Amino acid sequence: MISAMEEDIIANTTNCPNCQSEMAITDKFCASCGQKVQRRIPRLWEMITEFFDSVLNIDSKIVRTFRAIFIPGQLTIKYFQGIRKKYYQPFRLFFFVSVLFFSVLGLSGIKDTIMGFNQQNDFVELQEKVQTSKKLTELRPVITPKFNDTVLVSEVFDTLQSELNISMDTFNINFGATDGSYDIASEDLLALTGDEIIEKYEIEGFWDQLVAKQFIKTIKDPSGFTWYMVGNLIWMLIFLMPALAMVLKLLYIRRKRFYVEHLTFMFHFHSFAFLLATVFILIANYLNDNGVIFALVIGIPLYLLVALMRYYKQGFFKTFIKFIILVISYSVLSLIFFLFMTLISLAMY
Question: Could you list the residue range(s) of the whole structural domain that residue 120 is in?
Answer without folding.
Answer: 116-207
